[in-house]
Batch of 2 targets.
Target 1
Amino acid sequence: MSDQTTCRRDARPRRLILAGAHRQPGYCLTCGIRAQSVCSVIDDDDIARLAETAVETLVLPGRTFIEEGAAATDFYNITSGSVKLFKALPDGRRQITGFATTGHFLGLAVSDQYAFGAEAIDTVRLCRFSRPRMRQLMDDFPRLERRLLAEASNELVAAQNQMLLLGRKTARERVASFLLERMREAQDPAEDVPLPMTRSDMADYLGLTIETVSRTLSWMRTERLVAIGKGHTVRIVAMERLQTLAAGDAA
Amino acid sequence: MSDQTTCRRDARPRRLILAGAHRQPGYCLTCGIRAQSVCSVIDDDDIARLAETAVETLVLPGRTFIEEGAAATDFYNITSGSVKLFKALPDGRRQITGFATTGHFLGLAVSDQYAFGAEAIDTVRLCRFSRPRMRQLMDDFPRLERRLLAEASNELVAAQNQMLLLGRKTARERVASFLLERMREAQDPAEDVPLPMTRSDMADYLGLTIETVSRTLSWMRTERLVAIGKGHTVRIVAMERLQTLAAGDAA
DNA sequence: AAAAGGCATTGATTCAGATCAATTCAGCCC
DNA sequence: GGGCTGAATTGATCTGAATCAATGCCTTTT
């Protein structure tokens, strides 16, 4: 990983702030630089000590910055951009287990190996710090630990939903669920859903093939459920019917 | 839920102990009764206050004690027995998202609704306490919060493995993975794997049908990978080959 | 011991989605 | 604009697991 820069420590904030999901601007916990969004404010005397070991890293699109099975030495907080998390089988079959965006933490694990890989979708900025440091941070800031627990809980709920999808839903139900999930994730409240990922990523996330994803989207178009826009965008036309489909209410 | 009894508060321990995975005998955090296994010791002055609202509940086999979508009012710690966690679709399709045994916590959620249901497999004893109380406990005992985070992290890893299984593995690979997982879970180090759950549970856990599970086990028997014993037990005969199969190395 | 009920196994057939195989489309770079 | 390249769509065919359908096999009851 050659494309990393040291933290800009000149911009010292008065208060320590966690990058997070609540979408307020603020300063990164680990390096003190201004982040796109933060969620949690921590009163702080020890900011100088905290900023000591922080490193900001820039990751280019397509780059795998966490290798599945590698030694889990670092902890990451995404300050901008989005990444895909995945697991793979020896013969190349791949399962994307989730997407992570601004504010998410990566590398939370009890094991000493990363259980999944992580690859940048677009250009990603993240703060990286060592595991011993993370432990120390959690000792010093209980709110951080609480926040990690909340994030883990949410991810667990998402994972359970995904297990239901992968184990029991049909291709149509999977794609419908995916579109609605993407809509919820999008910052714009509109029904124009951005799909920045490739069909291949969608397929690997939904446990399908690219052909089935493509066919299913085409079917949704002819059924007037969605309209497929330019530039990786899908507009939801019949929200009700799509929700019914995603919930598995009727075939 | 009529089959619950109040906590036996007469057995006051000197120290507060968390029921957990490390398999040492000790006292339950919430009610102070002796539990089959505990993992974490917490020095304690406030034991009387802590035991105040604790309730021990006995759950009979087959009983659903957490209803998916119901108001998430309580938090549970299993002190003995094993339960299955599941999600369901309106038409009855079901996905078992995991099994929980002695020491596991249930009900961890940011949302105010349970994201999954929980049903007792055998007779289950558990300690139940309210969410506000749980919050208070976490405030008072940071080690509890740390333990919950560790448990959530482990579950997240397990969930990611299961997503790979459900999204990308074949029926044979799924059953092989399941047998090895059960072997790891079992307390006996032997290669005799106990399968207390029904074929239907296995199928709903692996995203298959009971017929496919049955056929796959029969195939494994004829291939001399396993020997099917009496009373819901399977003996692993060819460990190496089973591991290769589970890892998805060769078809 | 016979009857009954609930799993589990095995067989026959179907089908949703995978695989194999062309096109078609959208950027991009001269 | 005219190739060039990788992604997306569409079509034809195949197949692994689901579905439909009998038995078989324990456990409980009488």
Note: Chain A is about 35% helix and 30% strand.
Target 2
Amino acid sequence: MTTKAKAKTETAAGAPGDTRTRIVRAASRLMQRQGYDGTGIKQISQEASATLGSVYHFFPGGKQELAVAAIQHGDQEFVEELRHVLGTVEDPAEAMIVLSRRMAEGLRDSDWIDGCPITTTSLGAAGRIPDIQTAAARTFARWRDLVQDKLRAGGIAQEDAYELAHTAISTLEGAELAAQVSRSMEPLEIAGRHLARLITLYK
Amino acid sequence: MTTKAKAKTETAAGAPGDTRTRIVRAASRLMQRQGYDGTGIKQISQEASATLGSVYHFFPGGKQELAVAAIQHGDQEFVEELRHVLGTVEDPAEAMIVLSRRMAEGLRDSDWIDGCPITTTSLGAAGRIPDIQTAAARTFARWRDLVQDKLRAGGIAQEDAYELAHTAISTLEGAELAAQVSRSMEPLEIAGRHLARLITLYK
DNA sequence: TTCTGGATAGAGCGTTCGTTCTAGAGGAGA
DNA sequence: TCTCCTCTAGAACGAACGCTCTATCCAGAA
């Protein structure tokens, strides 16, 4: 009631189909597949059933601001997948196998087009656009932290857990990339087994 | 002397500065940094000190053909680095540590812009352009084969060597990506140590 | 010398890019 | 009813895109 604006969608309700959300989702999906430069604002607005005016209304910072939001959306998506697997499978080593298999299946089911939700978006642009580099770095750190906590909870020493979490994320990332490019689940399946084996060494 | 044409540059000498080579090198370097869609043909021709006419003379297939040549160039570049390290360091496990450190140093020395020579080029385009996906897949397979041979020579069984080579390439790839995005050598250094540890398990 | 074909040179094509701008629709509060 | 403000709508701009095209250069063959 003061002059300060209310939360933007307080009255209109932040429904899942609300325009801003549709735009972010479309941007995230398209950039995941085609990269930052390969995806146009107009394509995003069409895919989101929104107009150019709406896009620039919600993202006055233009394509760069939209890309950062898309990365954060992809981040959150994988955080939920990660939380689900780590929360379901008790043994951290076993969890790596389950995780890699699920990633492989998701990749195959999308006909090898939906890889890591943030790598493609950020790779070509990170060198030119600092905000995108920062957002991508924060994402990796977040994923690593989740794995690290799981390893600690599994009885692994802090320093070992820290390093293993680094390698777990790196290896899964690289294996997903290799799997996508070679259109085969094998790199991810092998990576899962090796990560499990590596983790059991530190228990 | 027959009607069959001689090798194109037989007389003109395939000097390192020859136009076609300069174009491929510029394309490879630029696409490595900016991706397929982020790199323009005109930018490549300027960087190579060539003209648009020359580019389309040597690459009538246009940007796609040029991108494939750029990937093969990047492939060859890393093959030489790989051959050098694997040929110098006798122990395969130790070789992984040396390799990852050299990759980390190269990345840092380029101020974190020169990552994997083919990932950025191929990621956004592989889904749309089959030739690029195929070239990237062949590249990964080639790198893996070199590592696999080294592991075999180090006394590791065929099946184990096959799988370890997969994980070695995946992990190095992912760690380079993480290192680039977080502007830190740590992911690569940790990856090298873990790969070495993993390899010694199979000896 | 004349001829030939690889290589260089760059103007210009149609298209798409990211962005800006003005206009209007729709709902809440006075 | 009138006002205000968020959000929708899309035409239009200059720049850059990939690519085509014609013209020219020049070394070696005839």
Note: Confidence is low (pLDDT under 50) at residues 1-15 of chain B.
